[in-house]
Every structure is written in structure tokens, then in C-alpha cells.
Amino acid sequence: MADPLYELLAPYFNTTSPPSIDDPTTTKYLTRLTTLPLISLQATEPQSLSQSTHSTNLSLQSLSARSTTALTASSAHLSTLRTALPHFASCTANLQATIPALDSRALAFSSRYSRSAENEVLDRRKTALLMARNVDRLSDILELPTLLSSAISSSSTAQNSSNTSNYTSALDLHSHIKRLYALHPTSPIIHSIMKQAETAMQEMTTTLISTLRSPTIKLATALRTINFLRRITPDLSPSPSITPNNEGSLGALFLICRLATLTATLSALSPLRALADQETSRRQRNDQTVPLSSNASAWSGGQQTERYLKRYIEVFREQSFAIISMYKSIFPASPDTDSLSPQFKLANLKSTALLEQSSNSVEQDPLLPLPSALSTFPLHLLSLLTTTLSQYLPNIRDKSSRESLLTQVLYCAGSLGRLGGDFSMVISLFAGANGDGNENENEEEWVEVMKKHRELAGRLEALASGVGVKGGRS
């Protein structure tokens, strides 16, 4: 029934765009018309259509007002769509043509720069990234030689107790550098740091040796210095099976340094020695011009020589006692060895105790253990003293002066005798050294000096024991 109604209303449709009968809206509206009575079709339906048309117009107007910009843009894009689509199609074709080449390049890149493949560029980048992540550690490692040099230089300039801690810090830094070198022996940076550290440690060793040559060195300072040298140069301090007292070559080094100090101290007496040399020259000229029998009465000099020898013997006694006592404190004798015998005499150096070896050491090496450096050092000191006395003692022909000097030599021998180095009998070598020609009196001179010295020593011991008894009774 909707079709006849549509045909009945067809003449009244807009000829430009008539509604289609297949449109659901049109079909629905025609079905609704068939349900309305005639009165509603004549009275209310025209008004309802007018209202619907008016509301639709208002909705269209508001929609057009809101969507003017969008519609304009859509229109513009729609106008370029005809040219844009062909261009897009051509670009898509070009992209499709280049995809195989891109895929091959991507495969080549992935195979070249993969983690499993070896590549210098990747290695350099990995190295750069590793260095960037560990830049703080590298900075600390590169600053190690500077810190080591600073610790050593500050210890060299500081003359107080703080230099001990600085030297300890320097040794700890050197040990750390050696551990790094053991872990990374092929690293150029670590190798360079190790070379700088070795140079700094050589400077520290030189400074420590200079400390051993200081004229005012104390036992505590010498002991610390030897301990530092043991840590710096462990090769100089081998096991006790090679050398006694665990001294190694450090004992000889200590004695050489102190001997150099003693020689420098004695060299400071050169003004007095120059005056003594002048007296020696005058005595020799006098001996050539005056007959031998009257030399004793003709020669009246020797005062400057006496001053020089007294000062020489005094310095020798103080320094030699300090050297040997300090040595024995730094390198104490082990129970089975003795570096210097208590019964040390000039003609009887009991150094055979140093050559006693156990059965095992004999089987290994018959020359071990080596004797202590102190076993022959007193002989060298004694040679210095006897050479000087032999050269200058003939200038002194006054009996009291000679006895005073020989007594001073005996006190020096007694001082070393407390350490096992008594050389009292050395004064017998100077019999006949006054050049007066009377050998019998000269031979009895040293005997008389020895007797007087022993009598005086006995009196002092008796006095000391008497004081001790009185003190005990009180």
C-alpha cells in the first residue's frame, strides 16, 4: 500500500532530488501516513512538517556555523586529493623498490657490528664507554705517582714525627701500585705508573740513606729508617740462614753511612790538623839538623799536635761507641750467633762464632751463614786511630802529655770494651814513637801507663762499691 501512496505523492516531490522509495526514512514516513486519520492529515500534519523543517533548518545553520573551518579545510584537502593520491602511489612504489636494498644493507650492518664479530670500531667504542664509566677510578690511578712523590717530599722536608706516617703512606701507595702492576702487567698506563713509582722510591731510598748519615741521628730514628729500608729493598735483608741477626746488607749499609759521618766529623778538625802538620814538618827538620841523642832536649814543640790528638780521640771515642751500640740495638744478636765477641782483642778476633753452621746449612752451602758486617768493622776503626797516632804522636815528647794521650786512648778502648771491642794493648805499638832514641824507656812507657790506668780504675770501682754499701746500710 506504500507504493501507491508513493506514486500518488510523486508529482509533488522535488524533481532535482526526489526521495527514494528504498530509503528507510521514506518507507517509515509513508507507513506512518497510512496510520493517520484524514482529519490529522488535514489539520496537524502540515504543522508538524513545518516545525520539523524549521528545526532541521536551525540545526543545519548551527552545524554550518560550527563546522565552517573544518568544512573549508576538508574542501581544500579534497581538492588536492586527486593529485596527492597519484604522488602517494608513486612514492609507495619507490619505497617498495628500495626495501630490498635497505634490507641487504641492514643485514650487512648487523653482521658487521654484531657482538660476536670482531670489529675495531666496536672495540674502540667499547673501550671509550668503559673509560667513561671508570673515569673516576682512572683519575685515582693516574694520581698515584703524584701522591707518592708528595708523601716522600713532605717526609723529606719535615723534621718531626709526622714524617713517619708520611713514609708509611708512601710505602702503602707503592705496595698498591705493585699489586696493580701484578694484576695488569701488560697495561702501558700501569707500566708507566710503576716506572714513576720506582723513581720516587729511589728518591725515598736516597733520603733514608742520607738520614743514616745525619750527625745527630738518634736510635729511634735509625731503627725506623732501617725498617723503612727493609720494606723498600727486601733484597738487602735476606733470611737469617744467609746472614746472622737478619741484617743482610743493611748492616753493612748502616756501618758505611755512620763511618762516612765519622770521617766527615773528623775532617772538621782540619784546622788543628794543619797546625799539627806544621809541627811535624818542624820536627822532621829538627831531627835532621840536631843529633839523635839531643833530640829530646832540642825539641820543645807538640802543643798543637796534642790539642789535635785529644780532640781526635774524643770524637773517635764518642762516635765509635755510638756506632757500635746503635748497630747492636738495631741488629740484636740471635741466641746462637754473636756479631762481636765480648773477649774481642786486637790479636784474637773471635768471629768464628759467626761461621758455625748447622748440619743442614753445611750440606746446602758451606759458606753460609755469612759473617756479620760488624765482625771486621772495629778493626777498620782501629786502623784509623792507629794511623793518626803513629803519624802525630812522635811530635809529642813531653812525658806527661804522652801519658795523658795514652790514658785517653785507654779510656777509648775501655768504652768500646763495654761492647766487646777492647783494644787496650794497641798502645804497645807506639813504644819508641817519641823519637828520642831511648827504646828501653819507651818500651816501659806503655807499661807504666797501663799500670796507672788500672790502679785508677780499681780505685773508682772501690769507691763506687763503697758508695753502694753505704747506700745499702742507710
Q: What characteristics describe this protein?
A:
rod-shaped; 19 helices; mainly alpha; 474 residues; single chain; 0% strand
What is the fold's blueprint, element by element?
Layout: H1 2-9, H2 24-35, H3 38-43, H4 45-66, H5 68-112, H6 120-133, H7 135-142, H8 144-157, H9 162-183, H10 188-212, H11 219-232, H12 250-267, H13 270-289, H14 295-298, H15 303-330, H16 359-364, H17 377-392, H18 399-417, H19 439-473
What features would you describe in this structure?
This protein is mainly α and about 475 residues long. The protein is about 70% helix and about 0% strand. It is built from 19 helices and no strands. The chain has helices spanning about 1-10, 25-35, 40-45, 45-65, 70-110, 120-135, 135-140, 145-155, 160-185, 190-210, 220-230, 250-265, 270-290, 295-300, 305-330, 360-365, 375-390, 400-415, 440-474. Helix 15 (about 305-330) packs antiparallel against helix 17. The radius of gyration is 58 Å and the shape is rod-shaped. The N and C termini lie far apart (about 160 Å). The relative contact order is 0.05.
